[in-house]
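Whether sequence alone determines local backbone shape is best considered at the level of individual chains. For completeness, the protein is quoted in full, as a sequence line and a line of structure tokens:
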Amino acid sequence: MGNDERPQGNTNMAIGKTTLFSGKGRAGDLLDPKNWNDGVVPGVNDTEVIKMDPGGPVGGTVSVGSMMLLGPETITFTGTLNTVGFGGCSGLMVCVGAGAVFAPGATLNDGNTLIVGKGATGVLLAEGSGTTHSTINTLTAQLGQMANGVGTVTIDDAVWNNSLAAFIGENGTGTLNVTNNGSVTFGKSVVMGQYAGSSGHMTIASGGSVVVDGLLRVGGVMAAPAGTGTVSVGSGSHLTVDQSLSVGSGSTVAIAGGTITAGVVSDSITTMAGGVISGFGTLTVTDGQPINDGGIIRATGGNLQINGNVAGKGSIQIDANSIATINSTSLKLAGIAFIGPNATLSLAHASTVTAPISGFAIGDVIRMANVDAASFMASTGMLTLKDHGATVESLHLLGSFAGDTFAVTQSATDAMITLQHH
């Protein structure tokens, strides 16, 4: 993602004055001339600077060139804020301990760049009430823009439409929370933890939804050195990435009952060495390309369903009392590992599994449909699964199974292969 995705604003607009909010007029009224230090209400060519509590909620329609909330105030908007943006200036900037709250029904139309936490702390909260939602419309967003910046945006039962690129933890720390059926759409790519020392965090919970129409890079994998990122997708929540989802070194994507779908238009899912995708829920790649696993994909806490082929130098791991359900025709990995007791590996019938399997022990289960017999050859470590005498799969098991036998038990949907000690 290059700088061409950052808006330049209306460069033909004449940049006007910068006006400081004085608070000498009507409480909460940004259209009262007495509230500005020069006695004139700022217009679309001007920059509003607010460093104090305006005295109440801000209603009506306010249209300016840009607005800078520079703390420590928190301002609640109940009407419409239009920030035109011009030149290299931002539209709305929330920083230096400031907070911006958009109440149910309020709207932000940002014509350039939303900056939350430029070189200090900034917070933006968009709220809904179940039937009425606030709406945030932006071109580009930068959360935690500079090294000391800490920017947090929460979309709580609200809507955020960002038409171009977004940076969550560009040089500092950025956090996006999407909760209570909140909805976020990014029209271009999103980078989390872009540069060294930065970190980006995204939590999608309680029915929240995030759609990325470009790439999602968790951990700035294109920068050298890069920062780190974390993504969490909770139960009933969804993350959809039209192109590639990349998880960089030291970064994690956690699924806690939610769904992640990538490669809707093109590309796939990639974990770099040191990157981890873990949890339970659904992980799907849809364009036919294999998941490129160079790190770790770990089933933990329940059933992690992986829809798509998996290849690479990384591994799939299965924690105790967890299930990895892999719906694929090919598993060409460095390894598949049972790393806790009572773990289950569920494979599609007659899939091509070239990854060696380690840690399989008594209490663990391998599941596959249409299997009625299993035989193990100790000299090669190959477990052959058959259906009515025909071989349907050969699995390479690592370890010693002296004195053990492999049993096949039929269930209503498939066969369970377990290890029995004699």
Summary: Residues 1-188 form one domain. Residues 59 and 103 are 10 Å apart (CA to CA). The first strand starts at residue 18 and ends at 20.
